[in-house]
Amino acid sequence: MKHLGAELVSLDPGGAVIRVSFRGELTQQHGYFHAGVTGAIADSACGYAAFTLMAADDSVLTVEYKMNLLAPAEGEELVARARVVRSGKTLKICMADVFARKAGVENHCATVLATIMCMAGRMDRAG
User: Pick from 31, 64, 75, 119: most CB atoms within 10 A?
Assistant: First the structure.
């Protein structure tokens, strides 16, 4: 996420918001945010949302996600808002909506459904 310049904006039990500002390096051939960037921030937001419902010494790992692109991601920034839909012992089902913000107006550009695995007692390498 550091490479993309993405930042964690908010974190609540079962929810997370990540945003990334526009940079030319993050676009595809038409100048829109690349779908890979959209997927990356949605996946990370889902992971953080799931992690808020786990023990401090647990870690998360994405098992699967599906992304529907709804509109071109055109704007000054992308915002992914994720929430946990179902929190099982091992698997957390999450969804994220991604919005492209342009001139103060948000356009819903993608929806992601993700399955996140709880890796009990396995802290991240970084932490």
Answer: 75
Q: Could you tell me the pTM of the whole model? A: 0.94
15-50 b/e with 16+ CB inside 10 Å = b? bbbbbbebeeebeeeeebbeeebbbbbbbbbbbbbb
Q: How far apart are CA 60 and CA 107, in angstroms?
A: 29
Q: Is the dihedral of CA 86, 92, 98, 104 positive or negative?
A: positive
The strand order across the sheet containing 77-87 reads 7-12, 15-21, 77-87, 91-102, 105-119, 59-69
CATH topology of domain 7-119: Thiol Ester Dehydrase; Chain A (3.10.129)
* pLDDT number for residue 114: 98
Domain ranges of the chain: 7-119
